[in-house]
Recover the amino acids of this structure.
């Protein structure tokens, strides 16, 4: 657990980067810091591993005041993924990852072995380990950055806009990977971004900052979307706040019925019961995107709008049709999600 | 101006020993120059107010005519190789110091930050991150300093040293171009070879720069 | 040592030493004349060369290596050689000084040109500038700070080395160094050396001030 | 055959009081005649069983004399007048004997001059045949008739030396239009004389170019210019009997004419000073 | 009109950047080129003003083969906005904008006057004109880039990821401005981006490229969203394709009825008939976001989900309630939008 108590940071030039911050970041959870440029996200993050020293207030990691610890040692115990990777250009990928184990005196052999393992964990081949950072794509470099931060198996991970520089497709991949890793390793993660969608996707809680270093609201994504504390937060979350909330809910509990037969449109299946497309009586075909229980209500709504019948085809893990869900059922659950979030807030 | 090839044929031994002596003077000076400029550059890099001062001093030293330096050094180090080397070393500083400071400046702040954030202490950061990354710029300075020193060794003929420079005095005294031409050509050759060697050294020392896209 | 520096002070400040054809004022003027003329000639050779390779991107390898080759030319040897070939005149001195200055000017001009952001160069072409317009309206102004640095470097070297003129009987501040040496007048030797250093540093400061003034709008 | 040798990293070791056992390092100034003399000294010393090393091209006395004192070199071929002028500028002895006495008196501690040899090489002032004819010049005194018209070229030190601008003015009342700082009997001053950049040049009597170019040496009726016999300047520490005897032999054998011829071999025939010296020593049974 | 005919570009190093491209970019319309990194968008764009010469094929602008024209003159007649502005750092903003008029020999005075005018057009103050580019924010620099491209009033405008480097809020502003300018000046615009939302927002037609320089599909945004030519296009457009289509349709034609009275939730208005919030019988309040006719179906759907009644409050230009629209009506129109798009494709 990371605990900020009345933390204030004023730079020598007079800028107040963080204003009287009190914030709890739960153990094993992902806390996302968002806010527009210059609102103090990076500063907040960097005070945790003492890259920046607070002007006043205390910060405790795992109950211990960080200022009471040797800065270099503290940093070795906290993984830090820097904006745009910040890799060492003169070291191979493997040696980059082995940095902290080496600093901890683990011996070159053991450090390299650990690094090779992590390379795999973040989805890179052993061959990539021998290359230099500039020989990797942006997304691969980000992966190396994450691997390097994980190398000493630190309980805490700080990530400063780690996926900022890569294109949207790769970004989604990296986010998926992070979620998977988090499930496996359950680190305490502090994640900075200025992309709301990323925050909603990754965060167990989201802290929104306003320029001047003020924390405006800190809550779970659902609460935030349902009950923004003020107009600033609402604007920040964007116009499609209602829909975004649906991305947090899965189809799992939404009822399904049998597919319609003998009506204007029928759902055509293949021999293995997998949905192929919608077919109309006059021979028109419209593609279908079958959904699983784990897919979000947002995906369901999207599909129900695209579907000529308003019905969403649902399948099991093997892709076999289990039934269809109507637009109304989706909406009912969507409404429910909203009221739940409102109540929770 | 014709070249007296038989003179060259008769003097290959002398030319060889002069060339070696020339090279030794230049290399020692560059080596010492590097040794001195590295710590000074770190100081100049870290302590802003001292930067202007240190670079200024190296600039001024560079402008002092060599004869004056030798005359001042004679009471101290006499008519020895030491005097030559000290004089040359003083001249290398202007290039070495500037380039080393620039090299350290050129290390991306991000990378230094990364090292710090991993828990690397300052001295280790300097040795394992800053110097290696500054190496290309430092080496550029070493190359210039080497070539410059090689061309400058000849000024030490005033004190009876000066390697190939002796050929200049000799040819000058006797109105005899052959030794002068031989001296100039050998000096350039030496510089070109030394430069090529340094390029090779740099290639070996900076594996990460080899396959730049 | 103390005595030496006291005498040095006297030598530098005595009015008699400043006047006449052998006076400091005259020698200073000669020294400046040699240095500035040599640097000017070097600039006339090095600038177009550096701009051309920088603009076209062609011949860089050859030019940079030639420059390094030029740096390796031993000044004394060059002076002697040109003297033996052509006899007693200022020619050997100018040849040597120009050879000394050209490399710094070429390499810095070229470096300045390559430091121009390719995006900006691209933008210039994209707005419909022709080759020479790109060169003179965009590349040259942007490369100017580094070009100036090169000129400063060249000028310092030339000023420091122009003492060589006295080696082949001409004037300049080197006169004091060589005469002092011959006449066993250490004060005169050091006086000459100090004056050379002062001139070099003063010119450098002047140019760097000018540079700062000219490019005060630029970012760091 | 080695005309030029590099400076080795080791200086000479100064053996105990007056012993050449540890070897002798001979220095020479940076003009050819002095180098020839240095190698001649080396040849005779070697014959006497002394280990010798020659360090040629050592620039001016300002550099060489301190080096001699400091032990970087031990022995130097010198010229009576010039050396005296260096050590005691006010002394105006003109006879070889009195000069030798004066030198002995002026000698800094630790150094001494050995007996001078018969060869001499004096300063002289020359003009071209054409200039001589044009102004009717045969003696130094004639120069005074052209006061303020002529340009003299000489090494820088000549300007402030008695055997030079100062003496010419005092003794002959000569005033030049301009003094051009050139070199000491080197290519600069000779080139300048040839080209007409200077009218009068300060050369050495052993210079073979004087005859070759048909230049006129102005006579010195008032004995301003002392004859300059060649004299070994040596550090006490190596001046033992072996060395003294060997140097005395060469001093007695070498004549001015021979020295001029040796200069010609080096300057004109481009022979190495060392070879020229060794050949001479062998021919005269000195080596 | 810009017409590509069988255009092929192979770089000397062997990379094929554009493969057999035939494409029409209509006069006065915005054609957006999208695709992942390295797919040849920039190369395509730069062949139009001959910054890159095609290996084979012809490109005509306004009917004239570009290779028949003097390259520099051609470029002066085509505005070019470069990624990250590409401004001249040594010239003031005003002089930057005046570049092309000066090249055309317009005289300094006239060129500056024109530049000052354009400064205003792109929403910058006259004071900004005297500054140097580095003294402006990223967004302001982009504006200057656009102004510079417009300076000679060229009929064609090429824009290469012009808004790539600015944060999302400023980006939206710049897009709005571009749409406004386009309405005013109706240039033929070719716009490169790799942001699908930006493409959908700005494009009259969107051309999707695949790595290797292949044009995969070129169609209107609606067609594209409704009928992606293949899986590559579908993936590229992203999961919420169905919903994105709704952002193209406005509420204008969707019917509205009177607000409900005496039911579980009532819509509370202020004295001027402006909707305030939804109120339940037991006193709970839920915020309302009233929509105008110009708002999109997507916004309406979002609001209907957030609304406790599924109803969307609609207002006139002055903000006075005109009626409410039900979720079903929204869906009906959404479905209609999809079928129209499908038919058009
Ligand atoms: N070393 C420093 N000295 C002075 N001011 C600083 C320093 N570092 C940051 N600031 C200022 O503190 C404020 C907060 O900076 P910070 O880097 O924490 O913002 P951020 O939220 O991370 O912004 P971004 O999204 O742009 O990364 C900014 O106004 C910034 O200019
Ligand atoms: N001058 C060149 N020489 C060689 N290859 C080039 C050159 N310019 C571009 N390419 C290559 O051509 C391909 C297409 O490049 P282009 O710049 O058109 O892509 P893009 O779609 O604009 O990509 P991005 O989104 O990254 O800007 C790439 O593989 C690129 O590496
Ligand atoms: Mg930040
Ligand atoms: Mg591009």
């Amino acid at each position: 657990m990371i605990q900020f108590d009345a933390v204030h940071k004023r730079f020598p030039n007079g800028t107040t980067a963080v204003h009287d911050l009190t914030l709890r970041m739960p153990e094993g959870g992902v806390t996302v810091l968002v806010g527009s440029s210059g609102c103090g996200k990076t500063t907040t993050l960097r005070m945790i591993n003492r890259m920046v020293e607070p002007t006043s207030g205390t910060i405790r990691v795992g109950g211990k005041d960080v200022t009471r610890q040797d800065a270099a040692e503290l940093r070795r115990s906290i993984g830090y993924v820097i904006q745009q990777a910040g890799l060492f250009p003169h070291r191979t990928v493997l040696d980059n990852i082995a940095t902290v184990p080496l600093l901890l005196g683990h011996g070159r052999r053991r450090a390299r072995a650990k690094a090779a393992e992590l390379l795999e964990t973040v989805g890179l081949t052993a061959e990539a380990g021998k290359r230099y950072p500039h020989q990797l794509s942006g997304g691969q470099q980000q992966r190396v950055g994450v691997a390097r931060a994980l190398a000493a198996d630190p309980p805490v991970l700080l990530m400063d806009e780690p996926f900022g520089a890569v294109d949207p497709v790769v970004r989604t991949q990296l986010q998926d990977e992070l979620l998977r890793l988090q499930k496996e390793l359950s680190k305490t993660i502090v994640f900075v971004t200025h992309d709301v969608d990323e925050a909603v996707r990754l965060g167990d809680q989201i802290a929104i900052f306003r320029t001047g270093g003020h924390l405006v609201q800190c809550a779970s994504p659902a609460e935030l979307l349902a009950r923004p504390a003020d107009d600033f937060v609402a604007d920040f979350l964007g116009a499609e706040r209602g829909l975004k909330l649906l991305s947090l809910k899965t189809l799992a509990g939404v009822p399904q019925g049998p597919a319609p037969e003998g009506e204007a449109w029928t759902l055509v299946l293949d021999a293995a019961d997998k949905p192929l497309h919608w077919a109309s009586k006059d021979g028109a075909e419209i593609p279908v995107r079958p959904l699983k229980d784990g897919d979000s209500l947002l995906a369901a709504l999207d599909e129900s709008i695209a579907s000529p019948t308003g019905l969403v085809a649902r399948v099991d893990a093997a892709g076999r049709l289990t039934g269809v869900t109507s637009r109304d059922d989706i909406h009912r659950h969507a409404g429910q999600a909203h009221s739940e979030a409102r109540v929770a807030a | 101006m014709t070249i007296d090839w038989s003179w060259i044929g008769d003097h290959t031994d002398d030319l060889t020993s002069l060339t070696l002596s020339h090279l030794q003077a230049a290399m020692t000076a560059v080596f010492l120059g590097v040794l001195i400029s590295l710590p000074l550059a770190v100081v100049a890099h870290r302590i802003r107010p001292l930067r202007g001062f240190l670079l200024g001093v190296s600039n001024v030293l560079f402008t002092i005519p060599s004869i004056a330096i030798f005359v001042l050094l004679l009471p101290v180090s006499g008519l020895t190789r030491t005097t030559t080397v000290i004089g040359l070393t003083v001249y290398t500083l202007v290039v070495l110091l500037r380039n080393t400071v620039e090299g350290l400046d050129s290390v991306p702040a991000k990378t230094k930050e990364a090292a710090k954030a991993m828990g690397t202490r300052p001295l280790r950061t300097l040795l394992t991150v800053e110097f290696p990354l500054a190496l290309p710029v430092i080496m550029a300075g070493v190359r210039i300093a080497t070539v410059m020193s090689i061309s400058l060794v000849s000024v030490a003929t005033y004190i009876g040293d000066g390697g190939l420079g002796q050929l200049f005095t000799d040819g000058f005294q006797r109105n005899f171009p052959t030794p002068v031409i031989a001296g100039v050509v050998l000096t350039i050759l030496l510089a070109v070879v030394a430069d090529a060697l340094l390029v090779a050294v740099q290639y070996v020392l900076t594996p990460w720069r080899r396959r730049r896209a | 040592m103390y005595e030496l520096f006291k005498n040095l002070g006297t030598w530098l400040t005595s009015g008699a030493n400043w006047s006449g054809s052998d006076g400091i004022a005259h020698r200073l003027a000669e020294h400046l004349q040699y240095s500035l003329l040599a640097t000017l000639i070097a600039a006339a050779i090095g600038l177009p060369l550096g701009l051309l390779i920088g603009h076209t991107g062609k011949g860089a390898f050859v030019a940079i290596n030639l420059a390094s080759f030029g740096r390796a030319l031993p000044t004394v040897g060059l002076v002697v050689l040109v003297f033996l070939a052509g006899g007693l005149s200022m020619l050997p001195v100018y040849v040597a000084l120009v050879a000394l200055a050209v490399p710094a000017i070429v390499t810095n001009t070229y470096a300045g040109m390559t430091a121009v952001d390719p995006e900006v160069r691209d933008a210039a072409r994209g707005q419909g500038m022709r080759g020479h317009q790109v060169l003179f309206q965009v590349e040259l102004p942007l490369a100017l700070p580094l070009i100036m640095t090169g000129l400063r470097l060249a000028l310092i070297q030339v000023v420091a080395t122009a003492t060589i003129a006295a080696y082949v009987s001409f004037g300049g501040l080197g006169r004091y160094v060589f005469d002092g040496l011959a006449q066993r007048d250490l004060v005169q030797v050091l006086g000459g050396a100090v004056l050379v250093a002062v001139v070099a540093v003063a010119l450098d400061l002047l140019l760097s001030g000018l540079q700062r003034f000219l490019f005060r709008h630029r970012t760091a | 055959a080695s005309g030029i040798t590099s400076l080795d990293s080791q200086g000479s070791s100064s053996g105990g009081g007056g012993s050449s056992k540890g070897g002798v390092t001979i220095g020479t100034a940076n003009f050819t005649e002095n180098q020839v003399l240095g190698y001649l000294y080396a040849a005779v010393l070697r014959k006497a069983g002394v280990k010798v090393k020659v360090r040629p091209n050592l620039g001016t006395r300002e550099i060489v004399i301190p080096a001699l004192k400091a032990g970087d070199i031990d022995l130097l071929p010198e010229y009576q007048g010039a050396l005296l002028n260096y050590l005691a500028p006010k002394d105006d002895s003109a006879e070889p004997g009195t000069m030798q006495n004066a030198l002995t008196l002026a000698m800094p501690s630790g150094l001494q001059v050995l007996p001078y040899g018969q060869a001499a090489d004096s300063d002289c002032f020359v003009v071209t045949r054409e200039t001589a004819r044009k102004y009717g010049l045969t003696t130094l005194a004639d120069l005074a008739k052209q006061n303020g018209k002529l340009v003299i070229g000489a090494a820088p030190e000549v300007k402030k030396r008695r055997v030079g601008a100062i003496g010419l003015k005092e003794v002959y009342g000569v005033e030049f239009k301009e003094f051009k700082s050139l070199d000491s009997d080197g290519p600069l001053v000779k080139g300048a004389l040839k080209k007409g950049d200077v009218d009068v040049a300060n050369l050495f009597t052993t210079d073979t170019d004087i005859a070759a170019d048909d230049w006129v040496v102005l006579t010195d009726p008032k004995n301003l210019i002392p004859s300059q016999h060649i004299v070994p300047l040596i550090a006490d520490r190596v001046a033992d009997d072996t060395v003294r005897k060997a140097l005395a032999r060469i001093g007695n054998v070498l004549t001015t004419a021979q020295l001029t011829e040796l200069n010609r071999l080096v300057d004109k025939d481009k022979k190495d000073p060392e070879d020229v010296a060794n050949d001479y020593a062998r021919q005269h049974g000195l080596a």
In short: Chain A has two domains: 2-240, 265-341. Residues 61 and 314 of chain A are 45 Å apart (CA to CA). The longest helix of chain A spans residues 168-185. The interface with chain E takes residues 36-37, 167-169, 194-195, 239-243, 245-246, 286, 298-299, 301-303, 305-306, 308, 310, 327, 331, 334-335, 338-339, 342 of chain A (CB under 8 Å).
